[in-house]
Amino acid sequence: MKNPLSAVVVFSVVISGVAFSAPYNTQSNGDAIIEPGGVYCVIGATLEVEKGREGEAADIILDAGRGCSATHTGDIYLKDDTFVQADLQVNGNAYVKNKIYAKEVEIKESVPSADYVFEHGYQLLPLNEVELFIKENKHLPRVPSAQEFAEQGYGVGEMDNMLLEKVEELTLYIVQQEKRIQALEQERND
Q: Where are the domains of the chain?
């Protein structure tokens, strides 16, 4: 359907686990496409879908920039140069085909928790075993290989935790080396 759009459309959709099959009032100030796979807004569209006569708001309310779509599963797809000026909250999944540019990213779940490295009893691999592992596997212990990353991807929180674990292990190795150096210097001076 092309703008201007103000119509009553009959279709079935499941929103937040509730199935609706009734006339829906639609209003749009841009181009909107309604099809069985989802509701799509293009070129700065605003689309609101409301349940029939009672006017109960459905979950598909979309203020979007260009090339944005929302499916009835709650997933958001951002295409091309999508620009959303307001807050974008996604309770489903957000799929971005290319890059994401941000001034700041805040992760609230999966916060790094590698401080277990400093707990009494944490077993640091001896450096000769680390060297042997690297020679045989071409990556660090407890870190996936480049091929595994390419095939499976990774979560940002998971990666942050792996990197923090390695930084903390390196710190412990440096502390051990410093103690050995001091002991050798003391032995030499005696």
A: 5-96, 114-189
